[in-house]
Amino acid sequence: MMKEVVEKLVQMKKTISTMESCTGGYIASAITDNENASKVLSFSVVTYSNEAKIKMGVEEDVIKTYSVYSMEAADEMSKNSSRLANSSFGVGITGQINRKDEKNPTNEHDKVYISIYDAEKDFYYRETFQTVSEPRRKNKELICRKVEEMFLHILSL
Domain limits at 148? Predict the structure, then answer.
């Protein structure tokens, strides 16, 4: 996975950074499985807790107002990962994979929010992903495929 994305980013001389929550670094791992990953991956962090997200620049008010499981939080994650690394693109992923979080109650369960921030255009590409009744690893793989699909579309524009 992510091979074609890495190749295109290298060709375009673009970089990527990630701030992942529920995927636990799966996107960054998929990128680094490919040759030339060091040319494109600028920064990667797993912010599994609210406190970690806040330390990485996600506004506490965004979490309080919209929930940590929201597109607004994913946008903050993508933009801050891009800014922290001065990368061309930032990826932010947050959501729930087949579990209920008592610390962060929400009405929407099993939903993942994906935000890709394009620093040059100051623009967000967004998708929501409904998890399936599969093991967590399978959902991470499916989310990664969605991110890959999004990037291939973005890089072809």
Answer: 3-156
CB 42 within 8 A of CB 86: yes
Instruction: Map residue 101 onto helix, strand or coil.
Output: coil
The helix or strand, by DSSP H or E, that contains position 40, with its residue range, turns out to be helix 37-40
Single-letter amino acid code for the residue at 103 = K
Give per-residue pLDDT as tens, 70-107: 999 999 999 999 999 999 999 999 998 866 656 655 55
Query: Is-contact 62 105, C-beta < 8 A?
Result: no
**What does pTM read for this prediction?**
0.92
Torsion, Cα 136 48 143 32, to 10 degrees, reads: -100
Which CATH number covers residue 115?
3.90.950.20
